[in-house]
Design brief:
The structure is a homodimer. Chain A is α/β, with parallel strands linked by helices. Chain A is built from 13 helices and twelve strands. Helix content of chain A is 40%, strand content 22%. In chain A, the strands form two sheets. A six-stranded mixed β-sheet of chain A has the order 3-2-1-4-5-6, sandwiched between helices. Chain A has a six-stranded mixed β-sheet with strand order 8-10-9-7-11-12. In chain A, helix 1 packs across helix 13, helix 5 packs parallel to helix 6 and helix 6 packs parallel to helix 11. The longest helix of chain A is centred in the C-terminal third of the chain and has 20 residues. Strand 12 of chain A pairs antiparallel with strand 12 of chain B.
């Protein structure tokens, strides 16, 4: 079954998705009768293209690899009409819009505008963008529901490691009392290095930056803002909350010293930056802060850039899932995972 | 949407399922439009009953709690016609048969006969019984597919902790290269006690027996047979294998001494009974044996009666899920989880 997909944003996640679609096209067709047809791509920096018959993904990947513009798809020098994302949504006749632009956690824009436009135009939306999901989840979910469409956000938390799909299928019927997790790989990497390799905060941060885990301005990670966005999403999607990032108690890891970390280790504990949310009388209470976990906690063993999340459930008790929290292929896969879920629904 | 269910076997798992259905009936109706109607129960020891209009679950649970026979449902002294499971399947007009009898890992009977009868009669089958799944998976799957029916086995591995549903939904599109897990809670409990509380094997086993984790004859657990059945199921269902329990290299934990365990701990390792299967040139290679894991392995932190499974995937790398591996409510939930999955399909 052919599914027409358009990409808004073609950076790391978009490229990761295209690479998977190219590498696994036979497998996906044989196993799921899934034949993706990428009909349009629009990227702020790389230009845009609309190919109603479907883009040859191998050709596009070669262009991207060489750092060329998307609209050189038809040959060097030939230029296609430049389409902004809103026009592309209107013209592309895709069934699914993959919204893969950058996260703006303050405004959620321009992504939220793209998502609304796609839902109004009758297209399913898949996104790994934390902005719209953290700020406007209930509004976007309602728009999708009213139009019989999917609004899928697997990639917003723990990249392609299953969180939302796990709750919807394998854990269905459980009520979630609390979620508690390591949702930021950068800070977990830094804390791991401080404890295991005896680095101080500055050295560990520099190593994380060198390895591409941390950005030049690491504030969003180390001060806990990234984890805040994710715990807001989990609170609103899984715990029925309606909170905003400002409602979350937040403390980053910049105040933690190597001495504190080593002292904790000697007492049989380990510091982790924990994002936590639980149902309370007033709705949902959420916080991000460094916590000293006992070795018996399943989150304690999660080292390096990995992520993990523990669900506390009325029937199953504690269930923990651990996996990648970032990465080109892993986040690209989160988009594929959502697209395959929509495809399963369409086939029924 | 009403779903008619019949139970074959009403021991721990069946009672756990009934308790959940009773406690969460409002929740399940409101959230999923799911209205289970248990129309028949047949148990080798407790008798049988067929109530086409649906059994009052609260009344039945009260009988079971008092240790009374199922057929006293209509009042003490009144007896109903005794139905053997095969006759019950024929007469009950259920849409789903929950096969919850005891596991016979040598023959898979009588459960396999019940499952075949149900599939031939046009009923979906849900089971937590390892026998049929370990010995006849491909045959039963084919029968189900040919009749457009579901054959669901979530509860056969790690009770209600999602394994098969996780692969089918949240990890769809990944190819699984290897699975590696702690699939037997009894042995994990014993090893944890030997390491943490300095017990010898005999003391730890006796404690496990006292707490109900180990049976009077602990052979199936401590010699690895239970884990073998589970790794056979994982091999055949998830890795495309076609192996039998005898094909699995097996070594239990009875040869492990406290000294070995403590020496490993002092070197920064921990012994776990690991069930492992990977794709190989000839199909699938599977083994159950004690392994010394480094502290960096996500399975190392899994203590007590918990279970965990690591998938090695072509796209997502390693993903680990940890949760309960046994328990009345947890295994009862595994049955509900499969029934809800069938219900989702029926609603489409």
């Amino acid at each position: 079954m052919e599914i027409k997909i358009a990409l808004i944003g073609c950076g790391t996640v978009g490229t990761g998705l295209l690479e998977i679609l190219e590498a696994k096209s036979e497998y996906l067709k044989n196993k799921f009768d899934f034949e993706p047809k990428v009909v349009a791509i629009s990227d702020l920096h790389k230009g845009s293209i609309l190919v109603p018959d479907g883009i040859d993904i191998g050709t596009m990947l070669a262009l991207l690899k060489e750092g060329k513009r998307i609209d050189q798809y038809y040959g060097e020098g030939k230029t296609a009409e430049l389409l902004n994302p809103l026009d592309m949504i209107e013209k592309c006749e895709a069934q699914i819009i993959a919204e893969l632009t950058y996260t703006d956690i303050k405004t959620g824009e321009p992504a939220t505008g793209y998502i609304k436009k796609a839902l109004r135009t009758g297209m399913h939306v898949v996104t790994s963008n934390k902005g719209p999901a953290a700020l406007y989840y209930h509004e976007l979910r309602k728009m999708a529901d009213q139009n019989g469409l999917c609004f899928c956000i697997e990639g917003t938390v723990m990249s392609g490691t299953p969180v939302f799909s796990l709750v919807e299928s394998g854990l269905a019927g459980n009520e979630i009392r609390e979620v508690k997790g390591i949702l930021n790989g950068t800070t977990n990497f830094i804390l791991s290095k401080m404890e295991q390799d005896n680095m101080d905060y500055r050295e560990a941060l520099e190593l994380a930056q060198k390895l591409g885990y941390a950005e030049a301005d690491p504030t969003a990670d180390v001060e806990g803002y990234d984890a805040v966005a994710k715990i807001v999403i989990l609170s609103n999607v899984l715990l029925g909350g309606n909170i905003a990032p400002d409602d979350v108690r937040r403390q980053g890891i910049t105040g933690l010293t190597r001495e504190q970390i080593l002292a904790a280790r000697d007492q049989g504990f380990r510091y982790k930056l924990i994002a936590q949310a639980k149902k309370s009388a007033g709705g949902v209470e959420a916080a991000v802060s460094p916590q000293k976990l006992p070795l018996s906690d399943p989150l304690t063993g999660v080292m390096g850039a990995q992520n993990a999340l523990t669900f506390d459930l009325d029937l199953m008790g504690k269930v923990t899932i651990q996996g990648a929290g970032a990465g080109k292929v892993e986040t690209g896969y989160s988009i594929l995972s959502d697209i395959l879920a929509i495809h399963r629904q369409m086939k029924k």
